Amino acid sequence: MTDEDPQAGQRVRRRASRSAGPTGADADAAAVVVPTEKKSAEQKAVEQKAAEQKAAEQKAAAPVDLGKPDTPPEKVVSGDQAAAKAEPAGTAETPAETAVDTPVRSKPKAGLVVGIAVASVIAVALAALTVFLLVDRNKASNADEDRARYVAGARTTALNLTTLHADTAAADLDKFLAGTTDEFKSQFDGRKDSFVNVLGQAGVQTDGEVLEAGFEKSDGDCGTSLVAVRAMQKNGDEAPAERNYRLRITMCDVDGQLLASNVEFVP
């Protein structure tokens, strides 16, 4: 740069000066910040994405080949269509829940009805048989008890009849007659005293012992038993002698009390 001096008429060359610090261009260059490695990686990712997007646009703009492909494209089938194809015809409209919640009711077969009827008849028959057996068992038990009572009464009657002593003849005879019916007692009417006198005069002493007794038959409220008795008999001063008797004794239930209605000596 030059300036003219008016006095000297000569040009004076002046050196241009500038302030310290960078110039405008240098300031712009200094203002540019060098990116870090991280920003360079992000920039690369953005550039790569832009390149891929551009390639996709170019591919979309390319002409479409209308020729028949060598391999037919696979047909995309949705899940509902696949399920519909898998189900047999006629079941697609019926939901699965309907098949589970509403079972098909079939009419009872004739064989089942007959089986139930037969089972009912058998159950009734078994119940009737059970009742019959219980009743029969009770009857048998009662019959056994009655037989035992008849035999026990016959044993007592036979023992009282064969146990007599001259000094207690009247009391012994009354004990025997107390276990007999009125009809049997009537056989001793008017003869009781004479019988006691004969025993006293002969000095009869007899002690009976029942050996065996068994039930023979029953007739209504009466039962007949056979009783085997052994008696040690003594008359006066004679030595005791053994006597064996078989008696058929019929016992009858009179107002809940067993009484002898008949006594027979069996040979």
Topology summary:
Elements: E1 2-5, E2 10-13, H1 24-31, H2 37-61, H3 79-86, H4 96-101, H5 110-161, E3 164-165, H6 169-177, H7 182-185, H8 192-202, E4 204-219, E5 222-235, E6 241-254, E7 257-265
Antiparallel strand pairs: 1-2, 3-4, 4-5, 5-6, 6-7
Could you list some keywords that capture this structure?
267 residues, alpha+beta, five-stranded antiparallel beta sheet, two-stranded antiparallel ribbon, 46% helix, 24% strand, rod-shaped, disordered N terminus
Please describe what this structure looks like:
The protein has 267 residues and is of the alpha+beta class. It contains 8 helices and 7 strands. The chain has helices spanning 24-31, 37-61, 79-86, 96-101, 110-161, 169-177, 182-185, 192-202; strands at 2-5, 10-13, 164-165, 204-219, 222-235, 241-254, 257-265. The strands form 2 sheets. Strands 3-4-5-6-7 form a 5-stranded antiparallel beta sheet. Strands 1-2 form a two-stranded antiparallel sheet. A hairpin with a 2-residue loop joins strand 6 and strand 7. The longest helix is centred in the middle third of the chain and has 52 residues, at 110-161. It is rod-shaped. The chain starts with a strand and ends with a strand. Residues 1-38, 66-74, 76-80 and 88-100 have low confidence and may be disordered.
Briefly characterize the structure.
The chain has 267 residues and is α+β, with helices and mostly antiparallel strands. The protein has helices at residues 24-31, 37-61, 79-86, 96-101, 110-161, 169-177, 182-185, 192-202, and strands at 2-5, 10-13, 164-165, 204-219, 222-235, 241-254, 257-265. It has 8 helices and 7 strands, in the order ββαααααβαααββββ.
